[in-house]
Amino acid sequence: MEQDLYYRSHLSRDRLVHIVDADLTTCETLSVLFRLEGFQTAFSIDLTGFLATLERRRPDVVIASLDLGGGDGLVLLRRVKSLRTGTPVFMLEDRPAVEAAVAAMKAGATDVITKPIDSEHMVGLVHDALRQDVHLGPVRAGRRPVEVRGFAQLTPREREVLQLITNGQSNKEAGRELGISPRTIEVHRARVMEKLGARNTADLMRIVLTG
Predict the structure, then answer these.
(1) Can you tell me the distance from the alpha carbon of 71 to that of 82, in angstroms, rounded to the nearest whole number?
(2) Which one of 1.10.10.60, 1.10.3540.10, 1.10.10.10, 3.40.50.10490 gives the CATH number of domain 146-209?
(3) Which parts pass through the membrane (predicted)?
(4) CATH code of the domain made up of 2-131
């Protein structure tokens, strides 16, 4: 238990949780909750306010309402995912709405949570998300881009190779697409596996697909 508390404290340190909800009480309640967990917090009551602060500092976790109005919840989600930083985004909904939740998950949401919020569960979800350094982005043209953050940050070329491996391409096929030799692909693949702690290709796929 003591080790877990230390680990959770380490995950929280200097991490910013940004809450976006038209309901000020929700913003303040979640802000207090995560500050007690050692996080830094910020909150906005609409998309415009969030985007203004996004230019100053990118959050490590975003908790945003799907019900911002005018589809702004999904707009916010897509804006954060477009940064390709692997930032976990949790979407809140005032009441269960299957179609909206499915749309959010397809757009790259880490999870969709229905109010009232279970504080302990919410904190646990955020800590679990921060333990993962590989995330899948929203589906585009039948593919899911790979997002990597934290100590396992990959170079742009390594990310390209990981993307092609994830989509099932061989070294030869990946090399042809990137204009480099299969041997060079193998070198990049080895570096990716080392950085992500994968023992083999199957393990690498497991890490990505459970990210």
Answers:
(1) 17
(2) 1.10.10.10
(3) none
(4) 3.40.50.2300
